[in-house]
Amino acid sequence: MSTRQPGAARGGKLRAPLLFAAMAALIAIEAATTGWNGALVIVNMGLISAILALGVNMQWGYAGLFNTGVVGFIALGGLGPVLVSMKPTPGAFSAGGWGILIAFAIALVTIMAAVWLNRHLTRMKGLAILAVLIAGFFLYRAVFDPAVAAIQAINPASAGYLGGLGLPTLLSWPLGALLAAGAAWVVGKTALGLRSDYLAVATLGIGEIIVAVLKNEEWLDRGVLNVTGIPRPWPVPYEVDLQADPGFLGRAAAFGLDPVTASTISVKLLYGTLFAAVLLVLIWALQLALNSPWGRMMRAIRDNEVAAEAMGKNVTGRHLQIFILGCAVIGLAGAMMISLDGQMTPSSYNPLRYTFLIWVMVIVGGSGNNWGSVLGGMLIWFVWIKAEVWGPQIMHVVTATLADGALKQHLVDSAPHMRLVMMGLILLLVLRFSPRGLLPEK
Amino acid sequence: MDILNALVAILNYVVVPATAYGAQLALGALGVTLIYGILRFSNFAHGDTMAFGTAITILITWALQSAGIGFGPLPTALIALPFGIAATALLVLGTDKIVYSYYRKVRAAPVVLTMVSVGVMFLMNGLTRLLIGVDEIKFADGARFLISAQEFKKATGLAEPLAIRSTQAITVITAAIVVAALFWFLAKTRTGKSMRAFSDNEDLALLSGINPSRVVAMTWIIAAALATIAGTLYGLDKSFKAFNYFQLLLPVFAAAIVGGLGNPLGAIAGGFIIAYSEVAVTYAWKKVAMYLIPGFQPDSLLQLLSTEYKFAVSFTILIIVLLFKPTGLFKGKSV
Amino acid sequence: MSFLDASSMTGGYGAADILHDCTLKVEKGQIAVIVGPNGAGKSTAMKAVFGMLRLRAGKVTLDGDDITALSPQERVRKGMGFVPQVNNVFPTMSVEENLEMGAFIRTDDFRDTMEQVYDLFPILREKRFQNAGELSGGQRQQVAVGRALMTKPKLLMLDEPTAGVSPIVMDELFDRIIEVARTGISILMVEQNARQALEIADMGYVLVQGANRYTDTGAALMADPEVRRTFLGG
Ligand SMILES: Nc1ncnc2c1ncn2[C@@H]1O[C@H](COP(=O)(O)OP(=O)(O)OP(=O)(O)O)[C@@H](O)[C@H]1O
Ligand SMILES: [Mg+2]
């Protein structure tokens, strides 16, 4: 960010197409060596990573905001498919749904009362607010706890939660975006406008909290019991249905493929097409926005906050806007990821993997450049997946001359951690030697 | 008698553990705040520096133990600690030379340095895992209790026990010594004063002939020592697990910010505020309430938040402070 | 040759030059004053003399030695002391610690120098354990000057030492500065209060847009009707 050399990057106009071609070649090699199924798995998650990177790039590349709670917004977005597309648990809502809604209303009223007191009282303010908050909290718990217990008592082995609305999965994607945007509003409202590092620490906190909520609120998403069998989005079919479809079997035979391979590949291709469509629409909208007066203003603010402020721009307001939008994109990708996996496993949300890895993608791709984020997302995801294989291989080579023993065993066993080291190295090398990334901002 | 029992319960389940935890957080936050004050960036690698230092200390502890060297009633890790500190200091000095010094030279924005520290965090995290793995490790040895529950009950005849584990006592004593030494160093020695001067007004410090590389190196060494001590004490008191140390980043940062970033006194206050709130909010108050209000039989545990949400406490305090006093309770630096 | 001779300095912070062929000289034990409108480049010229600015052209000599290539720290060792216009104290350190930091490069006993500073500014002795950030504007300026004196400089450079202090304190400060000059220390000073400053100046420089507009003795500049009208308000 700090070193913005003038002039076009090396390679000029051809740089982006060449790099994307190289990326495609990497995928093709992967397909040729390990098969298309594996390659497509990487591509699909790579596309989601690209969208995640786009969201982070909106915040960092275009506004200089340091969001360290990406994992939380991804997880919150992932709640979308659970709430929208799962079947409602019979009897759960009547057992405790109202209780939970009333509890939330109590919480809201309590907070509003505290805010009101904060504005209108002069004497004994602190005490009054504290009293209201404590009373509100106990009232909330008195309503909330039995409601939760009632819901979790319903068929705990397979349900024990409210379930969803039973609506089409595609509808859950915008909901995921909305959930993430809501959380972003709360954090941004408090932490923006202060020192940049405060936002970093505040988002670190909200990320941890969201993940903790998803892990522990079983009535909501079964917590660590995981929600499985989340329906696929239209138009992606199930492999078993395809394999039972005579028309499909005929077409597969025409390509000379066996039904299992053909069905798994078709499913992945459909997912990929769907994700690519979302990605392209997002990029189109983003490019449009960034070349509009709004986008120019955003960049003006990023490049010189003080001057922009002096010109009467509402810097904090703009930052809040882009922070919320960026988080919405992240939430969208989070929802897409869950409908790709078909299950919600809250304990899998690890900040190294879901926050800081995305950061590596953005920096490597080229902060401020949307296509760079796409490239970075695909490339770093590819490297991350492959590093799992390379790590042990490298370690075997390194330890080849070592005598068998505890040390060698330890080194070989810990090889998977090599990829963290590798990501750190990549991030540091890019920041140091090519701070503008693979595809620099124009 | 019931009031005494209630008091003892509060001491046993809130005050003692929170004091030990607060001391650990305070040491961590001191490191963060020193780096912020002098090097002017938020070091996201600090949690992993703590993890690395502790890992080295554990490895040396094991080596000592297998060589049959112990420290009597005290944990062997205390003998290993200086070696852990030295190794960590070497690591961070090396990192500074290879990584951070460049960004100081080009006068990069603080947020760039913070980003760089994320890269370092990955590296150290990976390094620690390579060294010692990801499993939970308990490495406390020596005497287990300073005051054991049984002895206390027998001696006082109270129904409630009071146990003080030796690791808790060691934590508090070590932290007190370290903090006193640090404050003496900053207030009385020439090098310490030059560090404060550098933190106060870098340009004027340079004009006064203060050698910046010396100040920077000193800062890293002290930060490494604080991180290793904090990490080892935390590990002795609870257990060592690489990922938990990464997660300590939030309460440590919250403590530093709540106290006022760049202000050492604030870091200590912040550490204890966060620790006491966390423990008090996640403690089940049922027993205490039953002692205090005769005939009271609550059907819940009277626990405000389950322990899984302890991070929410740091976060909430952080947000409240940011809303009402953005520079922290003690005046911090506002760059 | 003058004790300080900074001749034909040209340079600036970035691509554009702020200073254009600017020349400043101070004789041994004399007071030279730079005046000029805001933004004229007075502070920039001071920084250039002190080596905080890369010059594209020009040369600085001190007592005959060419110091153009030296860093600010090296110039301190050569006997220059600088009091910047802003941020010239360590706010969370006590007055005494501020003075100690001023003497940081000295390896000998500097207690007598500190006594001399306290004799010069008695109020500082009173407030020696108070933090510099908690002092009044005038007291803070005294700390700043005292800090620069701790190295026993042969040339003291002051950038607007009387900024933001009351007229009475200003007169006080000027008296002290004359006292310092009497001990044989050369003084190069930027002043906003041009009249009073030129009155005590041996040499005066009027700087406009980074270039010397008028250069003469203080008295001659005061007498020049053109200078009076344009720069001294009639
Ligand atoms: N650090 C800097 N970087 C870039 N430009 C600067 C810097 N400091 C000053 N300038 C520019 O250099 C020019 C001269 O500034 P300088 O501070 O030397 O003026 P001055 O004569 O000291 O004014 P004043 O009487 O207000 O102190 C101004 O146009 C200013 O904008
Ligand atoms: Mg000036």
UniProtKB/TrEMBL annotation, chain A:
Any one cellular-component term (Gene Ontology): plasma membrane
Keyword entries, A-Z: Cell membrane, Membrane, Transmembrane, Transmembrane helix
Residues annotated as transmembrane: 41-58, 65-84, 96-117, 126-144, 164-186, 198-214, 269-290, 320-338, 358-385
Compartment(s): Cell membrane
GO molecular function, one term: branched-chain amino acid transmembrane transporter activity
InterPro entries in the cross-refs: ABC_transp_permease (IPR001851), LivM-like (IPR043428)
Domain of life where this protein originates: Bacteria
Membrane topology field: Multi-pass membrane protein
Annotated signal sequence range: none
Main subcellular localisation: membrane
Keyword Membrane: yes
Protein known as: Branched-chain amino acid ABC transporter permease
Source organism per UniProt: Paenirhodobacter ferrireducens
Native organism taxonomy: Bacteria, Pseudomonadati, Pseudomonadota, Alphaproteobacteria, Rhodobacterales
Automatic annotation (TrEMBL), chain B:
Main localization (coarse): membrane
A GO molecular-function annotation: L-phenylalanine transmembrane transporter activity
Entry's Gene Ontology BP terms: D-alanine transmembrane transport; L-alanine transport; L-isoleucine import across plasma membrane
Intracellular or extracellular location(s): Cell membrane
GO cellular component, one term: plasma membrane
Domain of life of the source: Bacteria
Membrane topology category: Multi-pass membrane protein
Chain ranges passing through the membrane: 20-39, 51-71, 77-94, 106-124, 169-187, 215-236, 248-276, 311-330
Keyword Cytoplasm: no
Keywords carried by this UniProt record: Amino-acid transport, Cell inner membrane, Cell membrane, Membrane, Transmembrane, Transmembrane helix, Transport
InterPro entries in alphabetical order: ABC_transp_permease, BCAA_transport_permease
Family classification: Belongs to the binding-protein-dependent transport system permease family. LivHM subfamily.
Name assigned to this protein: Branched-chain amino acid ABC transporter permease
Organism, as annotated: Paenirhodobacter ferrireducens
From TrEMBL, chain C:
4Fe-4S listed as a keyword: no
Tagged with keyword Transport: yes
Pfam families named in the record: ABC_tran (PF00005)
GO molecular function, one term: ATP binding
InterPro entries: AAA+_ATPase, ABC_transporter-like_ATP-bd, BCAA_Transport_ATP-bd_LivF, P-loop_NTPase
Residues in ABC transporter domain copies: 1-234
GO BP, sorted A to Z: L-amino acid transport
UniProt keywords, alphabetically: Amino-acid transport, ATP-binding, Nucleotide-binding, Transport
Gene3D superfamilies found in the cross-reference section: P-loop containing nucleotide triphosphate hydrolases
Cited SMART domains: AAA (SM00382)
PANTHER family xref list: HIGH-AFFINITY BRANCHED-CHAIN AMINO ACID TRANSPORT ATP-BINDING PROTEIN LIVF (PTHR43820:SF4)
Family membership noted in the UniProt record: Belongs to the ABC transporter superfamily.
The protein's name: ABC transporter ATP-binding protein
